[in-house]
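Consider the record:
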Amino acid sequence: MPPSPVPPKTDPWTWPEDVWRGAVEHVRAGRSLKPARWKEGATFAVALSFDSDHETIELRNGGRSYSKLSQGQYGARAGMPRILAMLQRHGVPASFFMPAVAAMLNEREIETVAAAGHEIGIHSWIHELNSGLDHDTERDLTLRASDVLTRLAGTRPVGMRTASWDFSPWTLKIIREIGLLYDSSLMADDEPYELLDGGQPSGIVEIPVEWIRDDAVYFAMDRFASLRPHGGPQMVLDIFLRELDLAAQEGGLFQLTMHPHQIGHRSRIWILDEVIRAAKAKGSVWFATHAEIARYCADEAGLQTASMTAQAFPDLATPTERS
């Protein structure tokens, strides 16, 4: 019998080899899916993404701070219009990962995002942390979230990003069960790769993230925890542009994660503008959604991916919001 994917609650230095090896090998990066050339001969690709968490950050924590709830509301009320207007102005697509509760609180937003041709991906139910859930609870919340996004956006999501990039021992199994094309929660590479499930190819594309390429780590503030990073916008732009420059030189993928309640402020939205302008100035670039990147890489590599069909998971053939 293979070891449990959940390490025991004992001192790690007491674990036998099969336990620590099992923890490391349970979900791991497999073969690189970086293509020799990007779509239509582009030399590098850019995948912009926004985690539209809105009020769910505070709701997950108990929903008692109305100041924090209002900060989440800012993302939907002021940040999103600026972001969508800038993407439209530049004519570039993006991927929006949205908790189901945030989508239900902001139905017009998700309709607008979908109508503009952007991608909408799964991002938890209420920004819960998966590592604190059992399998059945995580599975149920993921399915319910997928149903809500399908109903509101008019199309079923093909990818997901776990809340806070918290990937549990069950997450990959659930992703495979419901037939998703890709995940975007892990950080083993700069380039897309295939996830290994217990050492075996899973057919799931990983579009890797990194805290370096996430606006929240530079801007997020928690007054009650005395956390006040507030990096200057010029510093953040410099980091993003350095990541972009080398991605272009290496002929790879530049993936960026942003949040409407962070990047959407007046003093910060120009960072997005500068990043897009800098990428376009390099000439041969493909701006794509995470789903487009995942599909292209899978096709180029001949990867057999899971299918969003009734055969993959019959329960999903006719979406119904779960109670």
In short: Residues 72 and 289 are 24 Å apart (CA to CA). The chain has twelve helices and ten strands. The two ends are 36 Å apart (CA to CA).
